[in-house]
Design goal:
The protein is of the alpha/beta class and 385 residues long. It is built from 17 helices and twelve strands. The protein is 45% helix and 11% strand. The strands form three sheets. Strands 4-11-10-9-8-7-6-5 form an eight-stranded parallel beta sheet. A two-stranded antiparallel sheet has the order 1-12. The chain is globular and about 65 Å long.
């Protein structure tokens, strides 16, 4: 793609194409957005060791997730409403991930849900699960996941209380239930987006299909689905979910070592160190600052994922050196799909793969597994990381 060399270029291209309400939804964080910026700032504080005059072979970026080799140590995390950024957005991301040889995680708030994505790609993505207040609804969602062959459930636990994202409040995201004159004007200023996404009517969240109580249109459905989330999540609920789901169970949204140990003791297969991209607890810790402690808390056998602020191959290298197995990226894939659909997502994979491989070799290493074995020895750490 001409002129696109890095994640920032995708962000700029997405801004030119998307209405402001969706640009702000993707980019924004909670309250002062301090946690949002801290995710990036702390990554930039870590320095890499440069080693020379050592044999460097062909780069091998494979990593292992619960004993299964995957081609790259990064992939798409769950991002809501991808199909609002470009028609078929969720399908584009899933297809690109399959070509890249990595799993992708489908958001509960997807326009194209499990049924549609699996039918379009022939492979079920991993699935992000929020618990509804109604246990029967949760059982229905688990059964749907089984039906379509989902291997991993990412149980998200850090949104029992929804924080205030001031950009969304100003724009009316999740409060609007119709297209207002202001929103119509935003759409009119983005004719390419409008012709693509609105040509078949305003998109709807597949999870709300057949449920008129959730409203019509993705904005109203987002508000109503959010209002139904279980607000009293407990460790007993995690244990109960573990008993109901025989596949891999990953807990997403852990930032405290005590919580990580408790999740391990509940029998999960892995955790995601995540502060929801800085969209929940403001003035919290960065995710990269918690990776080392997470590995110590859960031990060597569980899969350790991390997300939050990752933009470069160098960022991915730092996470692996600190003990992560896999980096989930959210916003970069949203920007890519918004800017250019599936070809752009393919290009994003290529850029990050190239950055990661070159960084690895300039550190005197050939494989991700060598990097993981070297651990902190690959880094010049700064601060309390």
């Amino acid at each position: 793609m001409k002129g696109i060399m890095n994640v920032d270029d995708f962000q700029a291209a997405a801004r030119r194409r998307l209405p402001k309400i969706f640009t702000d939804y993707i980019e924004g964080g909670a309250f002062s957005e301090t946690t949002l910026s801290r995710n990036r700032a702390d990554l930039q504080q870590i320095r890499l060791r440069q080693r020379v005059l050592s044999p460097v072979g062909e780069p091998d970026l494979r990593t292992s997730l619960n004993g299964e080799d995957v081609a790259l140590p990064f992939g798409p995390g769950p991002v809501g409403f991808m199909g609002l950024y470009r028609r078929g957005g969720e399908i584009a991301v899933a297809r690109a991930a399959i070509k890249a040889g990595v799993p992708s995680v489908l958001s509960s708030f997807a326009i194209a849900g499990l049924r549609t994505v699996t039918a379009a790609t022939g492979t079920a993505p991993d699935f992000q699960l929020y618990l509804d207040r109604d246990p029967e609804v949760n059982l229905e969602r688990l059964e749907t996941a089984r039906k379509f062959g989902v291997r991993r459930i990412f149980f998200t636990v850090d949104t029992a209380v929804t924080s205030v994202r001031e950009r969304d409040v100003r724009n009316g995201f999740r409060t609007l239930d119709r297209i207002t004159p202001g929103l119509f004007w935003q759409f009119a200023q983005r004719p390419a987006w409008s012709l693509d996404v609105l040509s078949g009517g305003f998109p709807q969240v597949e999870l709300a299909a057949g449920r008129p109580e959730y409203g019509r249109g993705a904005l109203a459905q987002a508000r109503n689905l959010s209002s139904r989330l279980e607000t009293n999540l407990t460790w007993d609920m995690l244990r109960n979910l573990r008993s109901q789901w025989a596949g891999q169970l990953i807990v997403k949204g852990l930032m405290d070592a005590d919580d990580m140990r408790m999740a391990r003791d509940c029998g999960v297969d892995g955790i995601v160190v995540s502060n929801h991209g800085g969209r929940q607890l403001d003035h919290g810790c960065s995710t990269i600052s918690k990776v080392k402690a997470a590995r110590q808390a859960i031990g060597p056998d569980l899969s350790l994922y991390v997300d939050g602020g990752f933009r470069r191959g160098t960022d991915i290298i730092k996470a692996i050196a600190l003990g992560a197995d896999f980096v989930l990226l959210g916003r970069p894939f949203a920007w890519a799909v918004a800017s250019g659909g599936e070809p752009a997502v393919d290009h994003l994979f290529s850029i990050l793969k190239n950055e990661t491989a070159i960084t690895l070799q300039l550190m005197g290493l050939s494989t991700i597994k060598q990097l993981a074995a070297l651990g902190e020895g690959a880094l010049e750490l700064r601060g309390n990381l």
